[in-house]
């Protein structure tokens, strides 16, 4: 699902529907052995659900502050909007970026763009892995599209900062490197998790995102 679907309501707080937790397009155990069912269940039904719930609460408070013209409260709510809104946007992308039928390499225009901008798929994979490993504390590694320059770009975001809202890059592929995404299975060895996740990357989804943002 496009992140744009979830960005718009953040700025339209007067008349909006509450955010909801999206269903996964596969079972919790479908990504095993690379990501186990317990991690997926906790990650989706607990962590993502918490971001959704907190986002709805924060937006309600923001709506009230907006109606009262209470700028001080509006400003004080910005960090919670950023964190929980980003958490909802990021995870909604992340679930679709993964598939039990994933792995391998992309094809078509996306592969050509990767070769053009990174030299080879191997170089791209190495760079995105390195950026993701190097995130200090919690955050995300991303492949994004720079619309102004017409090229792919790798970036890291801290905590739940959303890629497009903080860098302007359109998100294509996000790798969650918060410990809750891997600790139960990989303990503190983040590189092992990152090595495994390439086996479940849904290149069809990433390619569709790339095609959509070029239009």
TrEMBL record:
The entry's localization annotation reads: Mitochondrion matrix
Catalysed reactions listed for this entry: 2 superoxide + 2 H(+) = H2O2 + O2
- Under the cellular component aspect of Gene Ontology, which terms does the record hold? mitochondrial matrix
Quote the InterPro entries the UniProt record gives: Fe/Mn_Superoxide_Dismutase (IPR050265), Mn/Fe_SOD (IPR001189), Mn/Fe_SOD_BS (IPR019833), Mn/Fe_SOD_C (IPR019832), Mn/Fe_SOD_N (IPR019831), Mn/Fe_SOD_N_sf (IPR036324), SOD_C_sf (IPR036314)
Keywords associated with the record: Manganese, Metal-binding, Mitochondrion, Nitration, Oxidoreductase
> The Manganese/iron superoxide dismutase N-terminal domain covers which part of the protein?
18-99
Needed cofactors: Mn(2+)
Q: Give the residues the record marks as binding Mn(2+).
A: 43, 91, 176, 180
The enzyme's first-digit EC class, named in words, is oxidoreductase
- MF terms in GO: manganese ion binding; superoxide dismutase activity
Top-level taxon of the source organism: Eukaryota
Write down the EC number. Answer: 1.15.1.1
Task: Provide the Manganese/iron superoxide dismutase C-terminal domain boundaries.
Answer: 106-209
Q: Which family does it belong to?
A: Belongs to the iron/manganese superoxide dismutase family.
Assembly and partners are described as: Homotetramer.
Which function does this protein serve? Answer: Destroys superoxide anion radicals which are normally produced within the cells and which are toxic to biological systems.
Kindly provide the name given to this protein in its UniProt entry.
Superoxide dismutase
Which taxonomic lineage is given here?
Eukaryota, Metazoa, Chordata, Craniata, Vertebrata
